[in-house]
Amino acid sequence: MVFFAGFPYAPCLPTLLLLLVSAHTSTAASFTSPWLRDVPLVETSLVKRAQNTTTIPAPIVVAPSQYWDGIDGPWSSFALQVGTPAQNVRVQISTASTFTWTIYDGGCPPGYVADCANSRGFLFETNKSLTWTPNSIFNFDFEVNLNMDTTGNAGFDTATLGWQGAGGPTVSHSTIFSIKSSTYWLGGFGLNPRPTNFSTFVDPQPSFMQQLKTNNTIPSISYGYTAGNQYYQTPIFGSLVLGGYDQNRFTPTNVSFPFFTDISRDLLVRIHSISTNTSFNLASSDLLPSGPISAFVDSTVPTMWLPIDACEAFEAAFNLQYNEALNMYLVNDTLHQQLLATSAAITFTLTAGDGRTVPITLPYGAFDLTLQYPYITSPNTSYYFPLQRANNTQYTLGRAFLQEAYLIVDYERQNFTIAPCAYDNFNPSNADIRTILSPDTVLPNSRRSRFPTGAIAGVIVGIVILIAALAAILWFLRRRKHTEKRRVAELEAKEADGAHAKHSSENETKPFISNPIGGELGGGEIHELTAPHKPFAQEMESPHKIDPNKAGYSEMESEEYFGPGKGFAHEMHGSGPDVYEMQGSDVHEMPGHGEGHGLK
C-alpha cells in the first residue's frame, strides 16, 4: 500500500478530494437560498454576466406617489409620466391589465366633482404631447366578466415610472388608453406582460413590462406588489418592485401556485376556507359554507367577489345589509362603530396543489372603506364593506385583499406566490430587495470569488490530477525501493552460493570415501544427485543424518543413502585394506532442484 503524507493512500485520497472540492465550491457558489420555488437570487447591484458581455440589471423599486386616492378606498397610488414634455399622473396598479390608461379632460366636465383633475389623479392631455401617436377608439376588452369593460382613445406615447427627476424606467412606445368613464376613477398601470391586440392578432403591441425586459432594464418579467393600507397607526404605502420583490414586506411561506391555463385569469388561487374570530348573533364563523372555490387575484378592482352563500354568511356574521342597486354592502355609522369595537379578523386560507396552505388574516380595518360620489349619489358618501355577490366565473380577490397579502409573480416560470404581509415592527426604510433572474440567465461571476465557474471546475480537476500523479509517483518510488531491496538480497544469496560452490569444486579433486549408511554395494543401482546445482544440503525426514558441511550429500525419506555426484569417491566397509572405486559413468543422475521428488 502506498502512503501519502504518513497516511495510507487508498482510503485517504477520496477524503482529500472531497475536502478540496467542498472548499472550492463553498467559496465559489455561496448565496442566499430562495424561498420562492425555482427562483435563483443575486444581490441587487449591477453585475456582469459570463465573459463580461452584458450586464444583469437590478430590480426597479417603483416609489409610491405618497398620495391616498380613489372614491372607493382610499388607496395608495403610484406616479407616472406620460408624453413629451412629460405630464404627471397618479395611477393604481393593475395586475390584470396589459396596458396603461389615463384620464383625459373629458373625464372632468364642468361642475362634475370638486377638484376633479386632482381627484382623478391628474389628466393626460394628448394634444399637448409631441410624441403622441393616435390609433383609434377601442374597448378595453378587460374585466368583461365583472361588467367593468369600457372604451378609450388608444395610442402610443412615451411613459416613465415615477415622478420627474426620480430616474424611473422609460418606454418610448407604450400602449396608452385615454378614458373619461368613471368605471375606473384613476388611471391604471398594467403589470401583465402579454401584448395588446387591436381588432386583430396580426400586430400585437408589446407591453410595458415586456419592453423593459427586452431593453435589459429589468432582470426578468416578474414583480412583487402589495397595496399598502391606511388603518394601522402609521399608514403604510403600497410597494411595487419590478424584476424582484421586497423581502422585508412579508413572512415567507415557501408555497407557490402555478398559473391557470386561461391566460386572462392566470393568477387563479384555491380558497380552502374563510373564517372569522368574531360574529354577531352567534352566527357561524365559517364564511365559506359551500366549500373551497377558485378565485382570481386582481388588484384592478377594490372589492372581493364571492359566492352568494358566502356573502350571506358575511351578512349574518357582521349584520351587513345588501344594496341590490349597487351590488354593495353599505355600512351606517352605528354599525361602523360596532364593527370597530369587535376587533374582528377574517382569515382566508389558500391551498396549493400539494395540499400546503397559506393563511392570510385581514383585520376589520381592511374592510373599513369609503364610497364617494359619483359612485353613490344619495348620500354622497358612505362606509362600505368591500364584498360583492358573484357567480362562479366572477370569484375575485381584489385590492382590499392585497392590503394584507404580498403578491410575487414570475411570468417566465409561470408561477406566483401569495404571502402574509409582515407589519409587526415594520419599517419601510429597511427594504430588502431581492432579484428574480430569468431562467435563461447565465449566472455571473460570484462576488465572493474572482474566478468563473468554469475556471473553478478546471482548478478542481487540476488538483485531482495532481494528487493522482503524486500518488502514482509515490507508489512507483515505493515499489522501486522494495524491488531494489529484493535484488540486493538475491545478489547476496548468489554471492554466498558462489563461495559455497567454490569450496565444493575444490573438494572434488580430493578423494573422499564415506561410510555406508544402510545401502549395499551391488544391491542395486547407485543414483547420483546433481550436486553442483544444489547449493545447500537439503534435509528431508530420515533416520539417517549426514554431515551437512560436506557438499553433495542429501538425505531422503528412504533408508538408502545416495552419495555425492559424479567424480566423488564412494566408500564402503571392507575386510581388507584395498579400496575399490566405481566408475562415475554408471551413476544415474537425478534433478537437484526439486525438493522431495521421487526417483526417476
Automatic annotation (TrEMBL):
<dbReference type="InterPro" id="IPR033121">
    <property type="entry name" value="PEPTIDASE_A1"/>
</dbReference>
<dbReference type="Pfam" id="PF00026">
    <property type="entry name" value="Asp"/>
</dbReference>
<dbReference type="GO" id="GO:0006508">
    <property type="term" value="P:proteolysis"/>
</dbReference>
<comment type="similarity">
    <text>Belongs to the peptidase A1 family.</text>
</comment>
<keyword id="KW-0472">Membrane</keyword>
<dbReference type="GO" id="GO:0031505">
    <property type="term" value="P:fungal-type cell wall organization"/>
</dbReference>
<feature type="region of interest" description="Disordered">
    <location>
        <begin position="494"/>
        <end position="515"/>
    </location>
</feature>
<dbReference type="InterPro" id="IPR034164">
    <property type="entry name" value="Pepsin-like_dom"/>
</dbReference>
<feature type="transmembrane region" description="Helical">
    <location>
        <begin position="455"/>
        <end position="477"/>
    </location>
</feature>
<dbReference type="GO" id="GO:0005576">
    <property type="term" value="C:extracellular region"/>
</dbReference>
<feature type="compositionally biased region" description="Basic and acidic residues">
    <location>
        <begin position="494"/>
        <end position="509"/>
    </location>
</feature>
<protein>
    <recommendedName>
        <fullName>Peptidase A1 domain-containing protein</fullName>
    </recommendedName>
</protein>
<keyword id="KW-1133">Transmembrane helix</keyword>
<feature type="domain" description="Peptidase A1">
    <location>
        <begin position="76"/>
        <end position="419"/>
    </location>
</feature>
<dbReference type="InterPro" id="IPR021109">
    <property type="entry name" value="Peptidase_aspartic_dom_sf"/>
</dbReference>
<keyword id="KW-0812">Transmembrane</keyword>
<dbReference type="InterPro" id="IPR001461">
    <property type="entry name" value="Aspartic_peptidase_A1"/>
</dbReference>
<dbReference type="GO" id="GO:0009277">
    <property type="term" value="C:fungal-type cell wall"/>
</dbReference>
<dbReference type="GO" id="GO:0004190">
    <property type="term" value="F:aspartic-type endopeptidase activity"/>
</dbReference>
